[in-house]
Design a protein that fits this description.
The protein is an alpha/beta fold. It is built from seven helices and eleven strands. Strand 10 and strand 11 form a beta hairpin.
């Protein structure tokens, strides 16, 4: 069977494209790392793919705000085409800086053309970059294909502007909509994000923005608790988690991407 294709954007300061392409290949996709200039020069290539990935990194050096310049560049060139791709059911995942791009483009939590932009991603509450592993709970009110059969997962975060913010005067209706579009929440508050939100989807669930990095947990050896899990008879490691699925389940990041694969092949 021919593998589904995934376009992985690169260039312009994106620096997690190789890891993302590798993770998607492990999940069953045929990844194509495509420079943003090549993508914008021939945007019709998007419809040759079943998934578009905007990886993490520091696009344009976060010169104005994280993801804003790349978002403007993509929106000016391919906004209508991207809306058509999403409407047709194509999968889109924005990871960390990619999530910031999707929010700056106004594609999350609402991805319909002309929908208002109602959230932003701002500096972490402590005003500094965070690099750590976190525990996340998958929202039971969200039916995104990316999180099928997942409930509590572990992934790393690496961001300085990952705090999800909402309007000060937000009404109950919008609050309910944001809750409905929430994909995952931090188990503990790590950056001041509204309602501990770490990821959002659109209503259909085929557009996902995620601050944690799934591509960074596709092998068990990437987790800081690996030594504890693999050498159970050794010294106890009380400061790290003991993953309930080890060693039978697949790593959580790979599970998310394999779910995406299953969504496009069935």
């Amino acid at each position: 069977m021919k593998k589904p294709k995934a376009i992985v954007l690169c260039g312009d300061g994106i620096n997690c494209d190789a890891e993302t392409a590798y993770a998607l290949e492990l999940a069953g996709f045929a990844p194509d790392r495509l420079h943003t200039s090549d993508f914008l020069g021939n945007p019709g290539r998007l419809f040759e793919a079943q998934l578009l990935a905007i990886p993490g990194g520091f696009s344009f050096g976060d010169e104005i705000a994280s993801g804003r310049v790349l978002a403007l560049k993509i929106k000016r060139k391919v906004s209508d085409l991207l809306h058509s791709y999403i409407h047709a059911g194509g999968l889109v995942i924005g990871i960390c800086n990619g999530f910031q791009v999707l929010v700056q483009m106004g594609l999350l939590p609402f991805s319909d053309p002309g929908a208002p932009r109602v959230v932003s991603l701002s500096r972490n509450i402590e005003g500094k970059f965070i690099n750590r592993w976190v525990e996340l709970e998958v929202s039971t009110s969200n039916s995104s294909p990316f999180f099928q059969s997942l409930s509590r997962i572990h992934l790393p975060i690496r961001h300085g502007e990952g705090r999800l913010c909402v309007p000060d005067n937000m009404d109950n209706k919008l609050a309910r909509e944001i809750d409905r579009h929430t994909a995952v929440r931090y188990v503990e508050d790590v950056n001041g994000s509204y309602e501990r939100i770490a990821g959002l989807t659109n209503r259909r669930g085929n557009v996902l923005g995620l601050m944690p990095h799934p591509e960074a947990f596709v092998r068990w050896t990437q987790h800081p608790a690996w030594v504890s899990w693999s050498h159970a008879s050794g010294p106890p490691r009380t400061e790290v988690w003991h993953h309930p699925g080890f060693p039978d389940a697949i790593p959580d990041g790979l599970a998310i991407l394999k779910n995406a694969y299953q969504a496009v092949v069935y």
